[in-house]
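Subject: design request, 269 residues
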């Protein structure tokens, strides 16, 4: 059995035959940093040889996963403790997990940090399952697309509440939601690991019920759309959530950021 502290030996002799020496050395160095951080945090030391074999394969194939785990061992241990690394997610599971993470979030800085940390954790999970051979292509693409959709919806829900409050809207019944349309790979549920997300923002006509004190509908939804892009696209100390591309909206860059339904092209052939 390959022990936790014996991994450098396993890299060199048992688990990685044919691996270039430079890669074996780099993995051994990363493992040493990881074990020091994990030991300092008093995480239990895994000894399962199958798991260690998968770790070698995944870290060798993905610098992203390796760096995330070495930088923050708690991320990997949380995935293991929750059983998420080995589990197939059910439909809607991302939404439930993010909803719990967003409980108590009170401002856009906190929102951005939660979204970025959530996305990082789940991207590590998806990539690990893909590279370890535990998930097929359809699951990987489906999970990547559902993760992006969940982050967009979670951010929009919070920002809608705050924007309503800031503009003095009197109640949710008079607040039709901003409609976010996923286009391109997101719309086809074929998002990959490096994809940006192509979005279109639209809003329904308030049918004369829009309160005068709230400003115009266009101003309300323009501000909400801008805040949503900022929450997802801005690069912070926690990274970014997704790069947002709005060029597929009606009239492209020359068109309004948020369009009334009437400006959207009619569906159909």
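Subject: RE: design request

Done. Sequence follows.
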């Amino acid at each position: 059995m390959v022990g936790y502290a014996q991994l450098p030996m396993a890299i060199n002799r048992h688990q990685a035959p044919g691996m270039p020496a430079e890669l074996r050395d780099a993995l051994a160095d990363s493992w040493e940093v990881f074990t020091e951080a994990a030991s300092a945090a008093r995480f239990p030391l895994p000894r399962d040889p199958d798991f260690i074999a998968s770790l070698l394969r995944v870290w060798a194939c993905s610098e992203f996963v390796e760096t995330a785990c070495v930088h923050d061992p708690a991320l990997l241990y949380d995935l293991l403790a929750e059983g998420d690394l080995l589990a197939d997610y059910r439909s809607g599971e991302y939404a439930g997990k993010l909803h719990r993470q967003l409980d108590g979030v009170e401002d856009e800085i906190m929102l951005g940090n939660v979204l970025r940390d959530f996305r990082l954790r789940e991207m590590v999970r998806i990539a690990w399952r893909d590279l370890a051979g535990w998930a097929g292509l359809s699951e990987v693409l489906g999970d990547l697309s559902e993760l992006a959709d969940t982050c967009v919806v979670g951010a929009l829900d919070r920002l809608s509440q705050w924007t309503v409050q800031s503009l003095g809207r009197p109640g949710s019944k008079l607040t039709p939601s901003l409609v976010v349309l996923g286009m391109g790979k997101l719309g086809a549920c074929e998002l990959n690991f490096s994809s940006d997300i192509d979005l279109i923002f639209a809003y329904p006509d308030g049918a004369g019920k829009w309160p005068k004190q709230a400003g115009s509908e266009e101003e309300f939804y323009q501000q909400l759309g801008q805040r949503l892009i900022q929450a997802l696209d801005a690069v912070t100390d926690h990274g970014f959530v997704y790069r947002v591309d709005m060029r597929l909206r009606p009239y492209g860059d020359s068109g309004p950021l948020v369009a009334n339904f009437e400006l959207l092209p009619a569906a159909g052939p």
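Confidence is low (pLDDT under 50) at residues 1-5.
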